[in-house]
Prior knowledge:
The protein is of the alpha+beta class. It has helices at 7-18, 27-38, 43-53, 57-66, 86-90, 93-104, 146-156; strands at residues 78-83, 117-122, 134-136, 139-141. The termini are far apart.
Amino acid sequence: MALEFSQEALEKFNETVSRYPKKEAAMLPVLYLAQEEFGYLSSEAIEYVAKLMDVSPARVYGVVTFYTMLNMKPVGRHHIQICRTLPCALSGAERISALIKTRLGVGVGETTPDGRFTLSEVECLASCGSGPMMQVNDDYYENLTEEQVEEILKNLK
């Protein structure tokens, strides 16, 4: 069976593209919708979005691979993204990353065996004045200390 949006997602798609003067301008919200619907953006999902958007799969692939918030493989229920750019690095991002790797028993780009956590290191999360910082799903955590990270992980488990 081919990959397709549910009726609800198809309605959201139509509503989304109707707000833009050109269909392709809705690419990011449509990709978010597809990721929400399918869990991640597999090659089948990319081809499906390309067909819906009337663009080539290569065009969609280029967008998906540019943005770190779009996932081409399954991620855990809690996707932890640690900013690794210079301001966060100078304020201790490597220390925070090492702590999380130890606590979860995974490396960067890996998911815990129970599927609960995925750890990623990403480029700028736009919080340069309040590093080190991480994003867990849609929530930002800034000015992190090791104690705060321990508490965050405890609350997520």
